[in-house]
UniProtKB/TrEMBL annotation, chain A:
One of its GO terms (cellular component) is plasma membrane. It comes from the Bacteria. One of its GO terms (molecular function) is branched-chain amino acid transmembrane transporter activity. Its main location: membrane. InterPro entries: ABC_transp_permease (IPR001851), LivM-like (IPR043428). It comes from Jhaorihella thermophila. The chain crosses the membrane at residues 21-39, 45-63, 70-89, 95-115, 122-142, 173-192, 226-246, 252-285, 297-325. It is a multi-pass membrane protein. It is found in: Cell membrane. This is Branched-chain amino acid transport system permease protein. Pfam families: BPD_transp_2 (PF02653). Keywords: Cell membrane, Membrane, Transmembrane, Transmembrane helix.
TrEMBL record, chain B:
This is Branched-chain amino acid transport system permease protein. The lineage of its organism: Bacteria, Pseudomonadati, Pseudomonadota, Alphaproteobacteria, Rhodobacterales. Its main location: membrane. The chain crosses the membrane at residues 6-27, 34-52, 58-80, 92-116, 136-160, 191-210, 225-250, 257-277. The keyword Ribosomal protein does not apply. Belongs to the binding-protein-dependent transport system permease family. LivHM subfamily. InterPro entries: ABC_transp_permease, BCAA_transport_permease.
TrEMBL record, chain C:
GO terms for cellular component: plasma membrane. Keywords: ATP-binding, Nucleotide-binding, Transport. This is Amino acid/amide ABC transporter ATP-binding protein 1, HAAT family. The keyword ATP-binding applies. Residues 4-252 form the ABC transporter domain. InterPro entries: AAA+_ATPase, ABC_AA/LPS_Transport, ABC_transporter-like_ATP-bd, BCA_ABC_TP_C, P-loop_NTPase. SUPFAM superfamilies: P-loop containing nucleoside triphosphate hydrolases (SSF52540). It holds the Pfam family ABC_tran.
TrEMBL record, chain D:
SMART domains: AAA. Transmembrane segments: none annotated. InterPro entries: AAA+_ATPase, ABC_branched_ATPase_LivF/BraG, ABC_transporter-like_ATP-bd, ABC_transporter-like_CS, BCAA_Transport_ATP-bd_LivF, P-loop_NTPase. Residues 6-239 form the ABC transporter domain. It comes from the Bacteria. One of its GO terms (molecular function) is branched-chain amino acid transmembrane transporter activity. PANTHER family: ABC TRANSPORTER SUBSTRATE-BINDING PROTEIN, HIGH-AFFINITY BRANCHED-CHAIN AMINO ACID TRANSPORT ATP-BINDING PROTEIN LIVF. Belongs to the ABC transporter superfamily. One of its GO terms (biological process) is L-amino acid transport. This is Branched-chain amino acid transport system ATP-binding protein. Keywords: Amino-acid transport, ATP-binding, Nucleotide-binding, Transport.
Amino acid sequence: MRIVFKTDYMQDIRPWKDGHQLSLYLILLALVVVAPWILNDFYLGELTNVLIWAIAGLGLMILTGHTGQASLGHAAFLAMGCYANVILLEQGVPFVLAFPLAGLITGIVGALVALPAMRLHGIYLAIFTMALSILVDDIIVLTEPWSGGVSGKYVGPVSLFGLEIDRWGTPWAFYWLVLGVTVAVTLGYINLLRSPMGRSFIAVRDSEVSAQAMGVDVARTKTMSFGLSCMVTGWAGALMGLYATVFNNETFTVIISIQLLMMIVIGGLGSIHGAFLGAVVIGFLPQFLSISKEYVGMVFGGSSVAIPGLEVGVFGLILIAFILFEPMGLYGRWLKIRTWFELFPFYRKDMFKRQKSYLKTERLR
Amino acid sequence: MDTLQLLISGLANGCVYGLIALGFVLIYKATEAVNFAQGDLMMLGAFIAIGLTNAEYMGLPFLPSVILSIGIMGVIGYLLDRFVIRLMFGQSQVAVVILTIALGFVIRFVAGLIWGHEPHALENPMAGGEVRLGDLVLGMEDVAVIVVTLLLTFGLFAFFARTKLGLAMQGASQNQLAAYYMGIPVKRVQGLVWALAGAVAAIAGILFAAKGSVDPSTGLLGIKAFAAAVIGGFGSLPGALVGGLIVGVMEPFAARYIAAGYSQIAPYALLVAMLIFRPSGIFSQTRVKKV
Amino acid sequence: MSLLEFENVTLKFGGLTAVNDLSFEVEEGEVFAIVGPNGAGKSTVFNLISRFYDPYAGRIRFDGHDLLQVKPSGVAAYGVARTFQNIELFDHATVLDNLLVGRHRHRRTSLLSELFFTPSVKKQELQNRHVVEEIIDFLDLQPYRDKMIAGLPYGVRKVVEVARALATEPKLLLLDEPASGLSVEETTDMRWWIDDIRRQMGITVLMVEHDMGLVSGVSDRVLAMADGAKLALGTPAEVQSDPAVIEAYLGRAA
Amino acid sequence: MSDALLKVRNIESFYGPIMAIRGVSLDVHQGQIVSILGANGAGKTTLMKTISGVMDPEKGQIIFADQEIQGQEPHKIVQAGIVHVPEGREVFPLLTVDENLSLGAYTDIDRARVERHRELVFNYFPILKERRNQEAGTLSGGQQQMLAIGRGLMGNPRIMLLDEPSLGLSPLLVQEIFGILRRLNEEEGVTMLLVEQNASAALELAHHGYVMEVGRIVMDGSAEDLMKSEDIQNFYLGVQEQGVRETRRWKRKKTWR
Amino acid sequence: EVQGVTDTEIRIGSVNDLSGIFAAVGAPATKGANLYFDKVNAAGGVHGRKITFITEDHSYQMPKAMQGFNKLLNRDKVFMFMQNLGTPMNIAGFKLMDPKGIPNVAPLSAARQMLQEPMHNKFTSFASYYDMARVGTKYLANEFGGKEACTMYLPTDFGKEVLEGTKAGAEEAGITFAAETTHKPDESDFVGSLSKLKDAGCDIVSLAVGVRQAITIVGTAKKMGLNDMKFLGTSASFLTVVAKVPGGVTEGFYAAASWQDLWARADEPAPKAFIAEYKAAYGEDPVGFSMLGYAAASMVVKALEAAGPDLTQESFIKAMETLDYTDDLVGNHIDYGPNDHQGADKVYVQVVENGNWKKLYEE
Ligand SMILES: Nc1ncnc2c1ncn2[C@@H]1O[C@H](COP(=O)(O)OP(=O)(O)OP(=O)(O)O)[C@@H](O)[C@H]1O
Ligand SMILES: Nc1ncnc2c1ncn2[C@@H]1O[C@H](COP(=O)(O)OP(=O)(O)OP(=O)(O)O)[C@@H](O)[C@H]1O
Ligand SMILES: CC(C)C[C@H](N)C(=O)O
Ligand SMILES: [Mg+2]
Ligand SMILES: [Mg+2]
C-alpha cells in the first residue's frame, strides 16, 4: 500500500494524489490520443460515440451528481446545443465560434430554466425537466423556420483551423475534436471541484439549510449549476449532431434523457470517473451485445434474428445486474477493487460486504 | 351540452391516469421509491388478462380471469420486490429509479416476446355497451373506470389513514431505521405494498385494455400518469386521483379549443405551470425541515 | 450600539406562539447564553437570526444592519455563523471540505477563473487552507481531517460543526447546544474552546445550552426563556437563583 | 448469580473495512440497569445497534433469554422484547406525535395495554399530550427526545437499550427521566442497558457499569466501585482540580491506555 | 473488391426497430425477410453466394441508429441496406450510403424523402404517405360526396406528409380542407378532437397516428354518433389487427395503402403458401409486415439474380431498374426504371368489412 504523507497544502489542491497517479493518467491520455492509429474506423467511431456520451454525462453529473438536482430532461439541452451549433454554422459563423457559442447559449437557456425550477426538489424537479424534454419535440416543430421542423436539418463537414472535420470522411479528425472537447471539459470539471463554486454545489446537495448558513446563496448556486451543466450538455449535443449529420424533432427523445441519467447512476454519482464508466456501459454495451450475438449465432447455428428485441432485453437485465451488484456505481466498485490490490494481502474476505443501510425520508427540505 | 360531454369523457379518461398514478403513489407512500415500471406493470396486467380471456389464447370467462389476473399481478409485484427490489434495500432512491426503468425494458421485452407488438383489445362483456343520459354518451367501460377508481382511491386512503399496517407503511417510508426499532418488518411490509401495486396495476390494465387496446409500449402512458401524480402532490392518494382528473379533463378541452400544433402540448405545459406555482403539487407532501 | 439587537420579536406557527414579544441584546465580545425548558423557543431564536423564518413582528439588527432585509445566505456575509442542534453537516464530503465550505463568504474569485484555476484562485485556495488548518489544529480534528462526515461519531460531528462555523471567521458565533452528546471530558474541552474563541479570536458567542456547568463556566450573561418569552436575564448566578427559573427549568436539586 | 438475560460474547462489528467493535463481551441480568460509559467514538452506539440487529456483527454471539439473536432481522429482535431508544431521536417526522406513539406499540396487540401505556407516556411528558396532533418533525429537539423515549415505553419491553436518553433535555427533565427510568426498573421490572454521557447520573441509577474505549471494554464493575475509581472520577465525573486547568488546557493520561 | 461481396457471401444490412415504438412493424418485417433469405440460402444462395442479413436494432432512437450504421458500414461492410426503418434514420443513413453508392432498398418508411436526390441508389417499394393520403381523400370525396376534409396527426414527418397529402387530395377533388388536430403518441382520449372536427363539419378525416390510437379514434367516433365521418388511414394503420378489433369497432374504417391485406386473401395461393411457410418456421401467424419483409427480400434476390455473378453496387442498381413483375403475395405490381425508383405505383383504397379488409378502389 502506498501511503501519501501530506507535507504541503498543494497536495490537497492539485488534482492527482502523487506522481504515480499522474503518470497513469498521462499514459491513458497518450493512449487515447494515438487511438486513430490503433483502432479501425468502426471502433474509432464507437470510441467517439462513447466520448460524446461521456461529455453529456459530465454535464449531467455536475447537476445531479454534484448538486443533487436530478434531471430527466437533459436531452432537451442536447437538442438545444445541436440546433444552436448548426443554425450558427448555417448563418456563416465559423465553427471555432459557433461551437463554443452553442454551449454558451444552451447554458444561458439552462440557467433561465433553472429560475422557475429553483423551488423544485427531487422528484418534482425530475418531472419538471422531463416535461421540458417531452415538449422539446413540439417546440422544434413549432419553430420550424429556424429548426427545419419535422424535415430536420443536415450538417455537413466543418472546418477547424483549416482541417476538414467530417464524421465519415475524416473520422480521425472528428475523433480528435471530440477528444479535445472531452479533455477540456474534464479539466474544467476538475478545477471546478477544487474551487469554492464546486464545493458550494456539494454543499447544496448535502444540506441546503447549512449551505445557506455558510453564506451559500442556494438559488444562485443552483442556477450556476444548471447553467454549467447545460453548457456542457449543449456541447455534447452539438457533437452528437455532427456525429449523426442529420437530425430532426424525433432525434432527442425523452428516452435519451432517461438513458443519460441511467448512465451516470450506473457509472457512479458524484464522480468524474463515473461519467466515463457509465458512457462505456450505455454507449458501447449494446454494440458489444450485438457483436457477441454473431458469435453466439456461430456456435449455436442460425444467423437470423430469432428473438426480436433480445438485445434490449438483455441490456435491461445487465443494467439491473449492475445496479444490484453495485448501487453506488461502477466507480464505487472500481475503488474497492483498487483498495483490494493496495491492501493485498491484508484484506479480509468480507471487507466490502455491504453493512445494512437504512433510508430516511427525502420529503423534508 | 358539448362541454358536458367533454367533461364527462375527460373524467373517465382522467380516472385511468388516476388509477396508474395510484400505483405510483402507493409505492412511494410506503417506500419512497419511484417505480418507473408502473406503466409497464399495467401493460403486463392487461396482457395477462388478455391471455386468460381472449378467445385466441385461453378463452376463460371474463370475471374469473379478471380476478385471476389481479391475483397473478399481485404475486408478480411481490416477487419483484422479493427478488429484485429488496436487494437494493437502503440504497439511494436514484438507484431504485434506474432499476425500475431497466425493469420496464425487460417487461416490455417479455411482453413483446409473448404477445407480439401489435395492439390487442380485451374481450369483455362491457364492450360496445353504453350509458345514455339525454345527449350524453358514456361507454360502459368508462362507467366501470370511474366507479372502480373512486372505490379504490377511497379504500386505499382509508387503509393508510386508519389501519395500523397503513401507518406502519408510512412510518417505514419516513425512517426505515426507526421503523425497525419499532418492530415493523419493513421488508415484508414493502413486499406487501409491491403486491398491492401489482394488483392495482392489473386493475388499471384491465380497464384500459377494455376501454381501448394495449401493446407492449402502452406502458409509456405511465409517464403521463406520473405527471398526474406529481400535479396532485406525489405521495398523496387523493392527489393521484385529482391530478389524474386534471390531466384527463385538460386534454379534451385543449384538443377542442386550442389550435392544432399547440393542443397536444397542453398537459405538459400545464404540468410545468403547475409546478412553478405549486412546487410540490396540490396536496403537498413535503415539509420544510426544522433545524 | 449592541452587536445583536432583538426587538419585540414575535413568531407564530399556526396557533402556537413560539417566540413571544422577545427582546434582548448581545454586546460585542461577550458570551451570551440562552437557557430554558424544551420547546421554549431557543432554537427558534437562532432560526430567526439565520432568517429561516420571517418574524410576525419585531426587528432584528446585527452590527447596524437590519437582518430582516437580507436573504438567509446574506446573514453569513455580515459575519454571523452558527451550528445546529441536530447537526447539519455535508455528509458526503470530508471534514476538510466541510470546513472549506465555511470559507465561502470570503470567495473573491469568479466562476471563470475557477474553471481555469488561475493563479489568483490558487492563491485564495492556499489562504483558505491556511485558515482551515489552523482551526483543525485548534479543535484537535487532525485525526478526522480526511474522513467523510457520514462515518463520524456524534461527538466529533458536533465539534466539526463548530469548526465549520469558525472557518467563516464570524463576528458572532451562534452555538445550539454545543455540549449535548459530549462526555464530561469533552464538555470541559468545549468550555476552553469557547473561552479561547472569545478571548483569542475576539468572536462574540451566543449559545443555547442545557449543561448549566458549561453555561455558568463561560457565559457573561444568561437569558432564561419560557414559552417564547423572557423569564430572567442576568449573570449566570443571578439567573440560576431566580425562583421562576428554578421552577420551570432547573428543578430543585440543581 | 443467575444466568444473564442478555449475554454479549466477543462481538466484532465493522463499517466496511473499519472495525468499530473489537471483541466486546458483557452481561445484563434480569432486572438490572447496566450502564456503558465511554468517550466519543468508543463504539457504544455501534454496540447497541449490533444488539438490536440493525447492524450485523462479523463475529461473536448475542444471547437473549437463551436464544442466539445476532444477525437476525431487527423486527424479530423487537418482537423478542428488546426495545432500542436510539441516539439522535429518529422520530417519524411526518407522522403526528400520537401516530408515532402508536407505532411504538406496533408489536403489541393488546389494545387496552397500548392505551394504558399511552396514558402513562402522556403522564410522564404532558407536553406530548398537548402536542399530540403536531407533526413530530416540527417538535423542538428536546420534545423529540421525549417522544423517542415515550415511544420506546410503548413497546412493552423486557429490556430497553437507551442510547443517550438525556440528550438535549433540560436539567429538570433530565432529573425526571432518571426518575422515570428508576421507577420503570423498580416497579415494572424493566431491564435496561444505558449509554449516557451524564455519567454521574447514570452510575447513580445503574447497578453495574462497563467502560468502553476504542471498541473494547476496558473496565467493568459495580456502579459503586466504578464511582470510586479515580480514573472514572477524572474522566467521566468531572471531578477535577479547577486550578490546574485554569491556566492552559492540559490532559491527564488515562491509566488504562 | 466490392464492399460486402465475396465469392461465397453477400452481406445485407438493416437498421431496424425491434424493440421501440415501431417494433410492431420492424420485428415481423425482419422475421419475414429472414424467412426468405434462409430459404434462398438453403437452396444454394444467389450465384453461389449465401446472403447474410444483419439487422441492428435502434429502438427508434437516432443515436442508436447511428451506431447501427457505423457497425454495418465500417465493421460488417455491408453491400447494401434493405428495409431500414424510420424516416429520420433513413435520411441520416443516406449521408453515408450516397458517397459510396451503397443501395438503400425498400425502406420501412413511406416518406417522400426516401427518394430524395441523389435518387440513384435508392429504391422504395411503395407509394408515399403523401400519395396514399391524396388518393384516399380524393376517392372518399368523389365516392361519398364528402365536403370537408380534415386530418388528425402526430406532428412528425409522417403526420405532416399525410396532412399535405390530404390537402392535395381535397384540392384535386374540389372540396375544402376544414380542420386539423395534433396529438401525442401517448394520447388516448379523442373526444375533444372529434368534437372539434364535428363542429368544423368534417366528413373525411385522415389519420396519421399510432395503430392503437387509430382504433380508439374510430371507436370513440362511433360512440359519439359521428356516423357520417369517414376515417381514412394510411399504410401505417393498414394492419390485419385493425380489422379484427372485437366488437366491430373498426367496421367502415378506410385505409389507403400500396398493397393488399394478407389475411383477407388467405385463401389465394400465394398468401396461403406464405402463411403456411411462416407458421412452419416460427410457430406463429404472420402479419402484414411479415409479408412485406418477405416480399422485400424476394425482390432483392430477384435483382441480385438479374445482376449476374459480377456483382457490384452499380450492377445491382442496374438490375433493380430492370425489375418488372407482379407480386401475388403482396397483391401489387412492381416495376422500376432508370427514372422510376418507386416499385408499386398503385394506391389501393380498402375498407374494413366484417372483420376483413376489402379492396374498393385502386389508382
Ligand atoms: N415548524 C414548526 N411548526 C410548528 N411548531 C414548531 C415548529 N418549529 C418549532 N415549533 C414549536 O415551537 C416551539 C419552540 O421550538 P424550539 O425548537 O425553538 O425549542 P427549543 O427552545 O430550542 O427547545 P429544545 O431545548 O428542546 O431544543 C416548540 O414548542 C416547537 O414544538
Ligand atoms: N457509518 C459509519 N461508517 C464508518 N465508520 C463509522 C460509522 N459509524 C460509526 N463509525 C465509526 O465507528 C466508531 C464507533 O462509533 P460509535 O458511533 O459507535 O461511537 P459512540 O461511542 O456511540 O460515540 P458517541 O459518544 O459520539 O455517540 C467510530 O470510530 C466511528 O468513526
Ligand atoms: C413503418 C412506419 C410506420 C414508420 C414511421 N411512420 C416512420 O416514418 O418513421
Ligand atoms: Mg432547540
Ligand atoms: Mg453514540
